[in-house]
Amino acid sequence: MFRSAFKSRRCIIPASGFYEWTGAKGTKTPHYFSSPDGRPLAFAGLWESAPNSQTNLLEDSTTIIVGPANEWMSCFHDRMPVILDWNDASAWMAGGDPGAFLRPPPEDALQEWIVSPRVNRSGVGDDEPTLIEPTVAA
Fold it and tell me: Where are the chain's structural domains?
């Protein structure tokens, strides 16, 4: 679906952070990952417009590109979002060589802490700022 978007419809998805879960099914522990300096992360993304099958109206969709985890992240998951250096944002948007961007970030690019399992409950306060506050694992 995103083959042509990779060539000509790139985007940057700014984010304060992202979640990853560890542990056994039913007892998973959520972790929050963010930039150590508090700056937004720049996820490499793609966008596409396609007709809605029911209305036939064009709808935009986006995807975050994921790739292999760096060594530090690999203890949490085997892949992670492709995080661009903000200095590379213009080159990514201009269609620069993807090989220069689609690589794991440096080991010190992220910080992590355990957050409340309430983050798993969709629809009820899922934009509540306290969901990213550090908590002690049960």
Answer: 12-41+65-116
Positive or negative: CA dihedral 51, 55, 59, 61: negative
Global pTM value: 0.85
Determine the topology of domain 12-41+65-116 in CATH. Answer: hypothetical protein yedk fold (3.90.1680)
pLDDT of residue 1: 58
44-56 pLDDT, tens per residue? 999 988 888 899 8
pLDDT in the model for residue 117: 85
Specify which residues 43 forms β-bridges with.
Answer: 13, 83
| DSSP characters over the chain | --HHHHHH-EEEEEES-EEEEESSTTS-EEEEEE-TT-PPEEEEEEEEEEE-TTT--EEEEEEE-EEEPPTTGGGT-SEEE-EE-GGGHHHHHTT--GGGTSSPPPTTS-EEEE--GGGG-TTSSTT-GGGGS-----
